[in-house]
Amino acid sequence: MSGAARLRAAVAALLALLAVAGCGYGSERVDTGAKVVPAGPKLSVDEVRVGYFPNLTHATALVGVREGIIQRELGGTKLSATTFNAGPAAVEALTSGSVDLAWIGPSPAINSYTRSHGKSLRIVAGAASRGVRFVVDPEKIRTPADVKGKRIASPQLGNTQDVALLDWIARQGWHVDPASGRGDVSVVRTDNKLTPSAFRSGSIDGAWVPEPTASLLIAEGAKVLLDEASLWPDQKFVITNLVVSQRFLEEHRDVVEAVVRGSVRTNAWINGRPDQAKDAANAALRQLTGKALPDGIIDAAWPSLTFTDDPLAGTLGAQAEHAVRAGLMERPDLHGIYDLDTLNRVRAAEGRPAADDAGLGVS
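Structure tokens predicted for Aliphatic sulfonates ABC transporter substrate-binding protein:
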């Protein structure tokens, strides 16, 4: 069997396992394989509950939890983790108090903040940028103009990639009804775990998706039509933020500071040891899903991601404008969505400049 054939077989096996283990929008309390146990004095709570996705765009959480970097900052306060398959489930858990902090994408954070009239959450740090590509069937789509009339997948109605796809379609001068996905392009909302099989069967012609789904599709024969980073100034845009419920932030700011500090130090560890960090993230995925990504997939996906504690607040505002233009929401009032005081204390202690909240911070 050729190397490409072995990679396709490994991908098919991985997808079959993921489809069984993780369809839908639920959550699961998980054994993270963390290497560090609580030790030392406790903070203001016995346990802090965090949520994230078993996804490379959430590698800050994958690595920070597994390697014990965040737990070390918490001392005797136990870190407990839950994984989610989509933003709405994570936001629901945050709202209900099932988790205290979560790593989520910008669109779920915007939606939660808007629907709660500014009372649900605060963004307290960035985590990752980039890592999203528009990949297509090269036999059907060779140029952007060929996308018209085709079936393109996004992960979920109103999620971060769905907003980006709808905005790109609108910029081509085409029309799509945002709710149904019908129009000059058919936008097919498809769980990332099912997208590669949908592409393989021919039921979709391409997808606007995060890593590692983009690289999984490429292994199935897809080609990159564009990297979303190419659409942004300096090729930077937020893909994952660290958020906290406002109630938990008010009552346990010491715990939030420990998690933020752990998140910042995790990103520094990732950026300083890229190969070791990639292996740690893949080991975490193996622990969480039952199977690691094939080497060829994670090697292709990893370089497209940037890990940064800067929340890139200006790009969050732009993403909200994209959602408005796409007809997914009314223009939101995002003032107060950021509370970067804790992050900036951590950055100042390391001799780094303050992160900018783009005028959307707590007054």
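The chain has two domains: 3-130+236-349, 132-234.
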